[in-house]
Amino acid sequence: MNEVHTHELLTDDTGTVTVETEETITNDAPVRQESQKTFSDYGVAPAIAQSLADAGILNPFPIQSMTLGVALGGHDIIGQAKTGTGKTLGFGIPALQRAIPADHPDYAKLPAPGAPQALVVVPTRELAVQVSKDLQTASKRTTLRVEVIYGGRAYEPQIEALKRGVEVVVGTPGRLIDLHRQRHLNLKNVRMIVLDEADEMLDLGFLPDVETLMAAVPAVRQTLLFSATMPGPVVAMARRYMTQPTHIRASDPNDDSITKKDIRQVIYRAHQLDKDEVVARILQAEGRGRTIIFTKTKRTAAKLSEELIDRGFAAAALHGDLGQGAREQALRAFRHGKVDVLVATDVAARGIDVEDVTHVINFQCPEDEKAYLHRVGRTGRAGNKGTAVTFVDWEDVPRWTLINKALGLDVPEPVETYSSSPHLYADLDIPAGTKGRLPRNKRVLEGLAGEVVEDLGEPGKKPRRSSEGRGRGERRGESAGQHGSRRSPEGRGDAGHSTARRAQESTADDGAAIADAEVTEGAGKSGHGHGRADRQAHAEPSGEGRRRRRRPATEEASEAASTADSTEEPSRPARTRRKPADTSAERSAESTEQQGRRRPTSAAMAVNLADGGDGAPLDRGVAAARRRRSRTRRRDGEVVSRTEAE
């Protein structure tokens, strides 16, 4: 029976009373019992009602029947009901029905045709995906476009979808604000905004972001707020942004507990080292379907899933360290039945709505009663039965005492339980003789590998460069193409070639100054013979060996000038070296032996040829003198040959 009150006090969970002029509707019928009326009886458009009928949804739940008439009339609503009672279609159908499709004559009259007309804000990515799928199911026979926007995916596909046009957007606060600030999400058309799971958004710290979005949409709008509980900040936000809201409470007179009575709740005090074995035996209980196991840490979730896979179960992990693609892969595999055990953390599993979840296992004790309600609410949804098993460690007994008192569960002292305890088998219908490993003849599911990972283009993650068919040398060649290689001329990049060109131009413009400096450096090291540069050039073939690092031209020129100054005086003509008669044959033999052992540098021969010589390497003093004369005292037509110098 429904009761309608024209004036009701809006009370939050702490007992604070706020005087509000509102209409409150309460329902004494069981919240999970379907109404005998169809959606069409509540004014739902035929196309939407037929879309729901195609999916096997014929009759609304009480929370839906109570919401549809008020929401379709354009009134603000505060909906309060336990999780799993069907709130999504309660606000989703009005959002779809009030939107104007692109083929409607009034579409062009909108302030910004193509911009979203309804905005649904949810706290988590997984819930956003679930809500968008429900709305797409309800709009299948219409031309309405529903788009889901959340973080962890690439921006570009979402921006392109907004450019093409969309009527309903479902998203998380962070990504919605980002796209709005980037001017990709236009909120001028928004006629309805829905805040789903408002209490969870408060717990996650999203209320400031929600208020930012509320301030960005037009002032004349319809606002729908749904929450399982009504904390003080949620009530304050409702007062600030809603106009005479209708407060709808769906309650079951036969269920006075905070949790749903269709969920069988079992609490055990388990030993840390025996938990894995206990879980493995619970997973072999009679009638066990899809199961969600909750942990407090990401490391525990990953470790437990690996342990269960090793024991033969089709399990997958869901936690914050996974990329969005891997998280969606795990959820798809769980929904499609390729894995039947999902090990998840609290934050990652918020808002997961999967049908036929028969068991929930709290592998670690929840932090508080809110976390407990969230966890056990994943089973027993939409009128189904469920089982919730909670493990309480020795150190968590005080925490459990507070949870038990807050929720009135009447289990103050959990029973000490081991994997061999007889009451474990009796409580959960575990066949006698069950061990901790799944028999091979029952391992029939594909597992996580049966679901393909979708490439979502996650921001901040660069695709791994393929190294197939490429060795270490090719990678060095690629890097050399950017920075210049010392290994081979083929691997040298633009920087290497430009350096060689600059060296050649500098040599030509400066009268072979750099080449002369190399000769001077080599002569200074070996006396009369060729320098170290000549020996390196002879020992390492050109273009094959390691290229000697060249010093700046200014440094080499200054060294050449200082060498020339120490060899001769500026005011005197070049002095020639006289060879003693008794040692000429010995020097000639030594010179011949050195020339045969190492060839002269092209720079030394270039200097000699420029002065009219025969291309043979010059003595240090002669080379310095001719360079000095070439740079400071060159006269027109003056050429000093090798014979004249000697």
UniProtKB/TrEMBL annotation:
Note the Gene3D superfamilies from the entry.
P-loop containing nucleotide triphosphate hydrolases
List all Basic residues biased stretches.
625-634
Domain SecA family profile positions: 1-416
Q: Which GO terms describe its molecular function?
A: ATP binding; hydrolase activity; RNA helicase activity; RNA strand annealing activity
Keyword ATP-binding attributed: yes
- Motif, Q motif: chain positions: 37-65
Domain named DEAD-box RNA helicase Q: residues: 37-65
What is the official name of this protein in its record?
A: RNA helicase
Which taxonomic lineage does the organism of this UniProt entry have?
Bacteria, Bacillati, Actinomycetota, Actinomycetes, Micrococcales
